[in-house]
Amino acid sequence: MEKQPIQVIGGGLAGTEAAWQIAQAGVPVILYEMRPNRYSGAHHTEHLAELVCSNSFGAMASDRATGLLHEELRRLGAIVIAKADEHTVPAGGALAVDRGVFSQDLTQTLANHPLIELRRDEVRIIPEGIVVLATGPLTSPDLAEDLRRFTGMEYLSFFDAASPIIVGESINRDIAFLASRYDKGEAAYLNCPMNKEQYLRFWQALCTAEQVELKDFERETAKFFEACLPIEELAQRGEDTMRYGPLKPVGLTPPSVPSVNGGDARGGERPYAVVQLRQEDKAGQLWNMVGFQSNLRWGEQKRVFQMIPGLENAEFVRLGVMHRNTFINAPQLMLPTLQFKQRPTLLAAGQLIGTEGYTAASAGGWLAGTNAARLALGKEPLTLPTTTMMGSLFEFISSASPKHFQPMPPNFGILPELGEKIKNKQERYGRYRDRSLADLANWQYL
Question: 139 forms bridges with which residues in the sheet?
Answer without folding.
Answer: none
